[in-house]
Every structure is written in C-alpha cells, then in structure tokens.
C-alpha cells in the first residue's frame, strides 16, 4: 500500500468517525478512479461506508469488486459474507464466502465466528456450535468466540452452558454492553432474576438500550417493584424500539399501570402487526 493510499484511508476513517459517510464515499470514489490498478482496499472501505448508510446492494457491489481484485484476502470475503446473511438474507452465498475466507486465512477465528452465526441464523445449531468451537480452538481467549458458542447453547436450550459462555465473555470483555445483556438474559432464563437485573444495569450503564430497560422492568414487576419498573419503562420510552420491543413495552406498561384490560385490544392489534411483518420478511432470514 502506497503512502497516498494510506493517507486516503486514514482520512476516510476520520470522516466515518464523524458520521460524514457520503464525504468518505466521495473521497474513496476519487481514489478508485485515479488509481491504476484500482485499489481493492478502497472498494472494500467504500462498501463499509455504504453499509453505514444502509445502501446494502451498493455495498455488495464494492465488496464483490474487492474480492475480485484480491481473492486471497480473507477480510474481504468475511465482510461480503456477513453482509449477505445479515442484511440481504442470502445465507447460502454467505456460507460460500465465509468458507473462502477460512481457506484464505485458516488461522483466523473471525470467519469461523461468522460462519457459526450464519448457520445459527439458518437454525442449524449443531453445525453452528462446531464452527464456534473451532474458533475457540484457534483463540481460546477470544470473547466473540465464547459469545458465539453461548448463542449456540442458548438456541439449543442448553441454558447452563450458555450461562458459562456468556460469563466468560463478560469477564474477558467487560466494556461491551452486549456481553452483559446476554449474561443478564442467561441468568434470567436460569431463574436468577436478581443477578440478571445487575447485569442489565451494567449493560445500560455502558450503552442505554430499550431492550435492557424493558427486561429490567419485567423483573421489577415480577418482584412487585412497580416504582422501579416505571422508571425503567420511562428510560426505555426515550430510546428507539422495534415492533417487538414496542409490544413488550406496552404489555409491561399496562401491568405497571394496572390497566391491562384497557390495553388488551391495542396490544392484540400490535401482535397482529408484528406477525404480519414477520410473515413478510421471514424469507429474508431477518
């Protein structure tokens, strides 16, 4: 990589940190048009910018260009595979890309992690667990690998094993709110509501999340702590929620306010809307 290419990539990273994604796209586009041969890294980084912008098909085009220019670079295949199964619902293609990434860099746990999550998305927990375990063999201290294996155990209803993996994850990477949220969910499913509540609190301290606040509200309601539950729901109401989270929020708010009967019709209508949305999008694997 030339000094000029490195300068462009450094400036691109600065622009992305500031949320100036279109400016980064313009900078990289100029770099692509002026470089000969075209820079695979420029294509890949522009694809990442398109992901930030929600332009997933444009991102796919750039990731594809990067893999064509540098077919032995595992990171490009991993990025393309991740996009295919998380954003475009094309899991079969994603598996092929992630296998290519593993062939390009068999010592990296990252493609194994992504392949595990892809198979988990397809509902194949056994193969997903095999790849998560393989990722751990490559790097036993990798928090993401433990997280993937925890997800596999949770999907297979091996709740005690899931708890063990999420505990390791939160211990190894305590700065990640997702790890505390997952650990809280594991404790809750294992019947330890008090510890679950503490984990959710740590998650919200690191990054406020409507999902975690709603879970905290449910635990407080079950314990009869309506005041604490209302405080959690108030915090959740200020954050973005998807349809399922909104449904749970409404249910718990009705419980906290003691007017479940009055809310019943509204909640039922929300359930129908969520199910209808799921029917429309399930073929996308979302």
Q: Any overview of this molecule?
A:
The chain has 286 residues and is an all-alpha fold. Among the domains are: 70 residues, Serine Threonine Protein Phosphatase 5, Tetratricopeptide repeat, CATH 1.25.40; 79 residues, no CATH class. 79% of the residues lie in helices and 0% in strands. The chain has 16 helices and no strands. The C terminus is likely disordered.
Q: Could you state the order of secondary-structure elements as H and E?
A: HHHHHHHHHHHHHHHH
User: In this structure, how is the largest beta sheet organized?
Assistant: none
Radius of gyration: 22 Å
The fraction of residues in strands falls at: under 5%
Oligomer: single chain
Please give the number of β-strands. Answer: 0
Shape: globular
- Tell me the structural class: mainly alpha
Please count the helical segments. Answer: 16
Mean pLDDT: 91
**Poorly predicted runs of 5 or more residues:** 278-286
Estimate the helix proportion, in percent.
Answer: over 70%
Distance between the termini: 38 Å
């Amino acid at each position: 990589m030339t000094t000029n290419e490195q300068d462009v990539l450094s400036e691109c990273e600065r622009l992305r940190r500031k949320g100036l994604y279109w400016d980064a796209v313009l900078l990289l586009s100029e770099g692509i048009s002026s470089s000969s041969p075209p820079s695979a890294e420029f294509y890949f980084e522009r694809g990442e910018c398109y992901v930030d912008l929600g332009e997933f098909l444009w991102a796919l085009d750039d990731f594809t260009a990067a893999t064509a220019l540098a077919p032995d670079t595992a990171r490009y295949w991993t990025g393309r595979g991740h996009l295919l199964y998380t954003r475009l619902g094309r899991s079969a293609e994603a598996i092929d890309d992630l296998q290519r990434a593993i062939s390009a860099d068999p010592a990296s746990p990252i493609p194994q992690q992504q392949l595990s999550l892809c198979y988990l998305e397809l509902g194949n927990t056994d193969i997903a667990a095999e790849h998560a375990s393989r990722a751990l063999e490559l790097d036993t201290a990798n928090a993401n690998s433990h997280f993937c294996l925890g997800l596999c155990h949770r999907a297979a209803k091996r709740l005690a094993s899931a708890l063990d993996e999420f505990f390791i994850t939160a211990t190894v990477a305590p700065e990640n709110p997702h790890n505390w949220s997952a650990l809280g969910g594991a404790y809750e499913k294992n019947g330890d509501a008090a510890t679950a509540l503490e984990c959710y609190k740590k998650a919200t301290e690191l990054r406020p999340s409507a999902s975690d606040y709603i879970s905290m509200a449910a635990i407080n309601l079950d314990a009869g702590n309506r005041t604490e539950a209302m405080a959690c729901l108030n915090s959740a109401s200020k954050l973005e929620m998807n349809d399922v989270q909104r449904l749970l929020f409404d249910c718990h708010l009705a419980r906290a306010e003691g007017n479940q009967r009055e809310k019943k019709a509204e909640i039922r209508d929300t359930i129908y809307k969520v199910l209808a949305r799921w029917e429309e999008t399930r073929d996308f694997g979302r």
